[in-house]
Amino acid sequence: xxxxxxxxxxxxxxxxxxxxxxxxxxxxxxxxxxxxxxxxxxxxxxxxxxxxxxxxxxxxxxxxxxxxxxxxxxxxxxxxxxxxxxxxxxxxxxxxxxxxxxxxxxxxxxxxxxxxxxxxx
Length: 121
Hints:
mainly alpha; 7 helices
């Protein structure tokens, strides 16, 4: 399971025009604090896009039902994101933005509404 970031990078980096996207995808399990995998870049090398994907990936993984557990309630997810931002695993600014839009993010992650439906409200 820990290989998927690296394998995604290896696939995408060879496609002309996707080199930067390959880095975003590769770094979505990296933390600002140097924790994570597979490359361990320093904080300055983590683009805003990779930071957004990292928060979105964790948010969605916690919210959605998995074969081994039910999805978590929104308040629990927010607590976990806050803990991860305090430990500098996640970007605090992205977590703050996610908290500000928590209900919309939750509905999208649960698949209860489409992005188009939410944006038209």
